[in-house]
Amino acid sequence: MRVIYQKLTTVLALLLLFSLKGFSQDKIITGKIQTANGTGISNATLSTNGSKKTTITDSLGGFQITVTNADKKVIVSSIGFLSNSFTLSTSNNYMLILEDDSKSLSDIVVTAYGIKKEAKRIGYSIQEVKGSDLTKARDANPINSLAGKVAGLTVGANAEMLGRPEIVLRGSKDLLFVVDGVPVNTDTWNISPDDIESYSVLKGTNASALYGFRGLNGAIVITTKRGKNSAKGWQVEINSSTLLEKGFLAEPQSQTAYGRGKAFQYSYGDVLYDNKQRLPEWGPHFEGQLVKQYDSPFDPVALVRTPTPWTARGINNFGKFMQTGLINTNNISLSSATDKSDIRISVSNMNQKGMAPNTKLNSYTLALNAGYNITSKFRIEASVNVNKQASPNIPDVNYGPNSYIYMFKVYGSADYNVDDLKDIYKGPQGVKDLIPYAQEYGRENSAWFIAKKWFHSHDKTDINGYIKASYKFSDALGISLRSQVTSWSQLRTEQVPAGINLNTYTPWYTFGWYGDYREDRRNLFENNNDLILNFDKKIGKFNISALAGASDRAFNYNSLYGTTKGLSIPNVYALTNSLVPYSSYTWGSKMQVYSGFYSIDATYGKYLTLSNTGRVDHLSTFGSGNNTFFYPSISLSTVISDYVSLPKAISFLKIRGSFADVKGGLTSPTVASAFTQITGNSTNGGLLGYGTDLLSSYDGPTYQNQNAYSIASYYNGAPSVNYTSTIANPALKPFDVSSYEAGIDIKFLRNRLSLDATYFISQNGPQIVPLNVAPSSGYGAQNVNGISSQKKGYEISLTGSPIRSVRGLNWDVMANYATYKETLKNIYQAETAYPLNNHNYTKGERLDGIYVQSFVRDASNNIVYSGGLPLRAPSDIGNNKLIGYANPDYTFGINNRFTYHNFSFSFQFDGRIGGKIYDEVYKDGMNGGTSIESATGAFGAARLAEWQTTSTGTIAPKGQYVANGVKIVSGTPIYSGGIITNMKDIKFAQNDVATTVQNFVSSGIGNVTEYWMTDRSFAKLREVTLGFSLPASMLGKAKLIKSASFSLVGRNLLYFAKRKDIDLDQFASGYNDTDKSLGNGGQLQSTTARRFGFNINLSF
User: Which letter does DSSP use for residue 476 in this model?
Assistant: First the structure.
């Protein structure tokens, strides 16, 4: 037994020794893979040379891997960098730097048609933004996240649910969107940000000329993610983001001292629709006096209403009504790649609960990218993106009876508590579904009734996809064939419930209060096919990269707009349930484009690159003889630092220049309802009298130069034909845009500091404009190639790394600056002036000048009054006065990012400085007596004094407001340009005529546009992100989770502006040459909310 025990002990000891020895042969090492400037490299692959074990770095470049005695070194590789290795020693921690690969994708940007080029060989301005930079502090619309990140690009982030952002590049609106090299029709809501690898902004005509007339204003090229080779096969990535919307960044403030009424009088109407101008908030002062109100006790037999105390019960009604919004976004993707194939599947969903009660939006996206190398020469690939948007109710904020801004901030009285109306649907009179609050005016409705009964639904399906086959004849020559489809289908409905007040808006909506119903259907289909031959070869000292191709584009669009004229059966929503025959309008369009194009880049050694592109389009929107045109471009770039010895501080120097000429195709980037397309009138102004006109992505024909007609209405019960008022011009030519650009790219201090500066000149025209013709022709105008304008500007982008510490602290900063001006250069033939935006423009004038009816002033600049109200010059175009410019002086953006080991912190400030804009919210709020300015300051003191003259509202008030200025004692003024020209003949005295505040606002300054203009300058703390990435040592030995990160995020946190009643950020454009307007400040808008939340990212 002892012998057996001794043998067993010996065996166990040997086993333990060998196990310990085996254990000592394996050890875990950790470390970091980073760039030369200290930035961690994520997804770098590490492989041991002996045991062949592999791992991948986390999002900050950290790694953990097990090595054995058989391993002598670890090999590290990553896309965009030269491979490197480190030799194993007794250390357990290693740090390795990977150098940039000059031939890698890190130095390559995506240009037109998805062509990848070395950045240093490009001769025009292009700026790239990584998709990963926009998925942390994300926006529901990914394009909004580009704001402040690209010099010259202005994004007006729309606060409305599904609101179309206003996108302006170098003063031109509505850019072309390109996904994986192919133009698409997109409202920018239908692409998940989690599927985007990068954005390349092609700035202006020089960069996007290869797209022809579609690239007239520049393009945003989106490259989607594809499957990547991984040591572990399939990669799984999960991203989840939750944002809460709480607190308003800019909000008009309301007074709570006075209630509804007029001239300090108010008494609730005992008769339905007792319209006595009780809507404005110019009623009695709140002092607890007894007043008949909507909820006062009512005797239905004696028809007597008992007055109740008049108090401010509804302080902050707007804040109590609005709720905390929620935006939740989730994405899961699976990807893999081998030497022969790659695939990526992604599913995203975005669920948004609006801040307005009972509003929400659901968006679902499926994206699939796949490619397969059938042989070493033959490859096929395909991509499809399907997006579904659905909402039972989206808010409408335009001026009208269904707008929350209208009812709270324009005519929002504090004499009621909005929470008292939550469940009231029947008034004291017993009328079914009657709204008891403010019913006597027939115009304002209960906010809660609107939220629960008045619905604006939205349903839209987008499908974008392509299939491509490519074949390589040799290393130098290849060919590809691609077919792409863009398709979307949209239905929007409006259900107006019985009992709603529409009487002063919609013409047919009588006091029967039956309700109403509308449908707006739109469908678009587009097919693009292209065949491209590629050539890339070094010939002597020249490296030639070229392509030549042909394409065809087939476009088809149709739409229907229908509305009932009252419902026969209340609350049954169908066009066939119309009380009288319903109205419907149909409109469609088709277009065919055949194109040929080429691109050639010739690089001579290390000295220079000459690039030339050309495109010929034959399209159906112009008459024969003028419907085929050529677009050339040429650019030159040279990297001086490659062949000239420069001071040590300069590590890179490139000079570039380019020219391009592109023509317009008589197309429009957006399309309105069938009613608007037929009649030329908006549904707001020409049909319903309220509501927001929806614009959809289109990029199709306008029929601007065709004698188009449509059956639009009935005359004496018979169909009538509606002809265009503008006669076609068979000699009309496409308008022309010629652009010149020069720039310099320079890097200092071993690339620690970089400067990219561009100067551009753009000649626009002759543009197509209507010219008045003799009325005897039966038409009002004819299109001609009329005015020309010139745009000049420059852009600067500065990037730097002020701190690069071996202890792990890094600081990166990027700053953008841009400015431009556009002036009138030429006018049609013998014309000396061109009427536009309330002014007769002459050569040399800035086209963004704001000419409005202004205050008349004396020689000392005092405002002149008559009868206590501002004196007005004659209201004609010649008497409008220049009060400023619509375009900002410049735009800027500053983005800072700090990293310390596994922590990161970033924030962005951006804004626009200079310019003027019309403040519709301010004007409407003052006119309604709701704005806080109507009850504070000099207005407030006078208003209170006037109330005290009314014996508690029982007699008419006596005016107490005396405006500071002068009045005319003698003489008759003569005007020119809104200015008194015979000042020596006029005698002035100090104004001493008093008027009521209400009269001064509504009949005085209400008619002087100058008063409502405000400074366009603002700055915004747009986003803040605080992140933490788990180090490799915390993810476990099994490495099931390759990386994990968590971020706290905030958007729209601080706002700096002269006035904070509107968010100026939403109005991106001043004057823009796309529609020749001065921007869109004259409308109500939803209040922009602050957003706070978190983001979680996991990869397996």
Answer: S
How long, in residues, is the chain? 1100
| Tokens read off for 760 | 């551009």
Give Cα 594 distance to the centre of its chain: 31
- Predicted confidence (pLDDT) per residue in 1015-1056, tens digit: 999 999 999 999 999 887 777 665 678 888 999 999 999 999
Catalogue the long-range contacts made by 465-471 (C-beta closer than 8 Å, 24 or more residues apart).
465/382, 465/383, 465/384, 465/385, 466/180, 466/182, 466/382, 466/383, 467/380, 467/381, 467/382, 468/380, 468/381, 468/382, 469/378, 469/379, 469/380, 470/378, 470/379, 470/380, 470/381, 471/377, 471/378, 471/379
657's enclosing H/E stretch is strand 650-663
Joined tokens for residue 1097: 């990212």
Quick check: helix, strand or coil at residue 183? strand
User: What DSSP string describes 23-82?
Assistant: HHH-EEEEEEEE-TTS-B-TT-EEEETTT--EEE--TTSEEEEEE-TT--EEEEE-TTB-
Q: SS3 of 433, please?
A: coil
Helices (H), 165-257: 205-208
Distances (CA, A) of 62 to 30, 55, 936: 7, 11, 60
What top-level class would CATH report for the domain 23-97? mainly beta
Q: For residue 407, give the 3-state DSSP assignment.
A: helix
Question: Using the 8-state DSSP alphabet, how is residue 835 labeled?
Answer: E
* Euclidean distance between CA atoms 485 and 385, whole angstroms: 10
Percent helix, percent strand, percent coil in the chain, to nearest 5? 15, 45, 40
Question: What is the rounded distance in angstroms from the CA atom of residue 514 to the CA atom of residue 498?
Answer: 5
Q: Is the dihedral of CA 912, 916, 921, 925 positive or negative?
A: positive
- Which of these, 270, 281, 361, lies nearest to 314 by C-alpha position? 281
The better pLDDT of the pair 232, 109 is held by 109
The CATH number given to 329-766 is 2.40.170
Could you tell me the pLDDT band of residue 722, with boundaries at 50, 70 and 90? low
3-state secondary structure of 661: strand
Q: How confident is the model at residue 439 (pLDDT cuts 50, 70, 90)?
A: low
SS3 readout for 906-969: EEEEEEEECCEEECHHHHHHHHCCCEHHHHCHHHHHHHHHHHCCCCCCCCCCCCCECCCCEEEE
Distance, in Å, from the CA atom of 427 to the CA atom of 439, rounded to the nearest integer, reads 9
Measure the CA–CA gap between 445 and 402, rounded to whole angstroms.
7
The identity of residue 349, as a single letter, is: N
Rounded Cα gap, residues 610 and 979, in angstroms? 55
Distance between CA 495 and CA 452 in Å, rounded? Answer: 11
Longest dimension (CA), the chain: 137
Q: Is the pLDDT of residue 426 over 90?
A: no
- pLDDT band for position 271 (cuts 50, 70, 90): low
- pLDDT tens digits for 272-306? 555 565 668 899 999 999 999 888 888 878 878 89
pLDDT at 231 over 70: no
For 576-592, give one letter per residue: b (16+ CB within 10 A) or e: ebbbeebbebbbebebe
Q: For residues 435 and 402, is the Cβ–Cβ distance under 8 A?
A: no
Pick the CATH number of 105-248+1065-1092 from 3.40.630.30, 2.170.130.10, 2.40.50.140, 3.55.30.10: 2.170.130.10
Q: Which of 93-107, 212-226, 1008-1022 is the least confident region?
A: 93-107
**Which tens digit of pLDDT belongs to each residue from 1060-1098?**
999 999 888 888 777 788 876 667 778 889 999 999 999
SS3 assignment, position 398: coil
| Cis before 395 (ω within 30) | no
Query: For the chain, what are the domain ranges?
Result: 23-97, 105-248+1065-1092, 329-766
State what percent of residues in the chain have pLDDT above 90.
54
